[in-house]
Write a structure and sequence with these properties.
With 207 residues, the chain is an alpha+beta fold. The protein contains five helices and eight strands. The longest helix has 16 residues.
Length: 207
């Protein structure tokens, strides 16, 4: 059974804000994806499926995978005419089918402008208004406090710390679980915050 619980006829959303557009990825995004993803400071906060160095071959393979993905909501963050980050909702299955993991990353060029906070808010609004998902969650590395702030500004609350659950860059780290329930969502949007990347990775097992 497909994990996405909105009408199958619905197209991937295009969400426009003053500073960015959330829209489906396109094969022509490959050069911009390499430009912005090929950064060790971005990769450090993501799963190992998001490689560094990030090559043109990596970009083309990932974009092909996204084009064939009919279950998840995986969007580019377009800024000033080029894809400069990504955000997505990865639906769970079986008894967890009303849960979705949110993941995101943003080019270092645009950190500190509040873009990630607003993009997360836009995706939360889409998830709770246009799908049947009732709970969104994200898992953040212990050293990624900027991403924790992004989630908190959008109403997410810390639910657990998975102690020494992550091995990243040769270091064993805690993982912080954040979640937001639809019936606790205010329906508002947040803006303005230091922005960084979450650990979720769109090219591997995460969203």
């Amino acid at each position: 059974m497909a994990s996405v619980l909105y009408f199958q006829s619905m197209q991937l959303p295009r969400i426009q804000r003053e500073a960015f557009i959330l829209r489906p990825w396109d094969p022509t995004d490959a050069p911009a994806l390499v430009k912005h993803a090929n950064n060790p400071r971005v990769a450090a906060n993501l799963r190992d499926g998001f490689p560094y160095p990030y090559t043109l071959g990596d970009a083309k393979r990932w974009l092909e995978m996204v084009g064939n993905n009919k279950e998840d909501v995986i969007l580019a963050i377009e800024i000033q005419g080029e894809s400069a980050g990504g955000i997505g909702l990865h639906g769970m299955k079986d008894v967890y089918k009303y849960n979705s993991e949110i993941g995101y990353w943003l080019s270092e060029t645009h950190w500190g402008k509040g873009i990630t906070t607003e993009a997360v808010g836009a995706m939360v609004k889409f998830a709770f208004e246009q799908t049947q998902w009732l709970r969104l969650f994200a898992c953040i590395y212990e050293n990624n406090t900027a991403s924790m702030k992004v989630l908190e500004k959008n109403g997410f609350t810390p639910e657990a710390i998975h102690r020494k659950a992550v091995m990243k860059g040769g270091k064993l780290m805690d993982e912080h679980l954040y979640a937001l329930l639809k019936d606790q969502w205010s329906g508002g949007s947040s803006s303005g915050s230091p922005a960084s990347s979450s650990r979720a990775d769109f090219s591997g097992s995460g969203p």
